[in-house]
UniProtKB/TrEMBL annotation:
Cross-referenced PROSITE patterns: MSCL (PS01327)
Subunit structure comment from the entry: Homopentamer.
Compartments, as annotated in UniProt: Cell membrane
Transmembrane parts of this sequence: 12-31, 68-91
Name the UniProt record assigns to this protein: Large-conductance mechanosensitive channel
PANTHER family: LARGE-CONDUCTANCE MECHANOSENSITIVE CHANNEL, MECHANOSENSITIVE CHANNEL MSCL
Primary location recorded for the protein, binned into one broad class: membrane
Keywords (A to Z) from UniProt: Cell membrane, Ion channel, Ion transport, Membrane, Transmembrane, Transmembrane helix, Transport
Species per Swiss-Prot/TrEMBL record: Sporosarcina oncorhynchi
Lineage per the UniProt record: Bacteria, Bacillati, Bacillota, Bacilli, Bacillales
């Protein structure tokens, strides 16, 4: 059982996933700070010092701070958009190498030769 766990835990995919989660969490904190300390004060300045997170409604002495919910939605949208842009930029730098026509022709020729050998072996039996 320990051997199976070691194989699972130290596979490249699991380690890559763990690194991605840590980096994603750190990136989320950066964007949350951007929203909280840069964007929202600017929005407050434009709207006349209104802080969305402080919006609330009281019903029968029960306070519903819906502003915090709205703030969380805004944070999510900005974080999702930031990650989308970041991934798009990374994908532009990453080059997908497609086989050239010459490589494809060479592969096809090899496959054809292997098919002929297979057929000859079948006839010989």
């Amino acid at each position: 059982m320990w051997k199976d766990f070691k194989e699972f835990a130290f596979k490249g995919n699991v380690i890559d996933l763990a690194v991605a989660v840590v980096i994603g969490a750190a990136f989320g904190k950066i964007v949350s700070s951007l929203v909280e300390h840069i964007i929202m004060p600017g929005v407050g300045m434009i709207t006349g010092k209104v802080d969305i997170s402080e919006l609330a409604v009281t019903v029968n002495k029960v306070v519903f701070p819906y502003g915090m919910f709205l703030q969380s939605i805004l944070d999510f949208i900005i974080i999702a958009f930031s990650i989308f842009i970041f991934v798009r930029i990374l994908m532009k730098f990453k080059r997908k190498e497609e086989p050239t026509k010459e490589e494809t022709a060479a592969i096809d020729a090899k496959e054809e030769l292997l098919k002929e050998i297979r057929d000859l072996l079948k006839e010989g039996k």
